[in-house]
Write a structure and sequence with these properties.
The structure is a single chain. The chain is built from 5 helices and no strands. The protein is mainly alpha-helical and 90 residues long. It has one domain. It is found in: Nucleus.
Length: 90
């Protein structure tokens, strides 16, 4: 990537999937430290939330971000995160 190119919209989604896969593989290891995983998930969500809010969504529209702005990565990240039931319930 050169010339000030921004990462593609799926870069954050791909990274979220990778982070959750690592968590899934290592979560039962007693020496596994969850803090870096949680920090990276939070960073990805924060980054994509900011990008979503820059699209100036209607504050009174309570639909899921993937419905109001289908091309937004924020809604896709939320779907990835909440579909991982084990991660959400631990």
């Amino acid at each position: 990537m050169g010339g000030g190119e921004m990462p593609g919209p799926s870069d954050s989604a791909d990274e979220m999937i990778a982070v959750l896969e690592v968590w899934n593989a290592e979560r039962n290891d007693p020496t596994f430290d969850i803090k870096p995983t949680l920090q990276r998930v939070a960073e990805l969500i924060e980054k994509e939330t900011e990008a979503y809010l820059k699209q100036d969504p209607d504050p009174f529209d309570d639909r899921h971000p993937s419905r109001t702005h289908p091309s937004s990565t924020f809604g896709h990240l939320l779907k990835i995160l909440f579909r991982n039931e084990d991660f959400m319930t631990k």
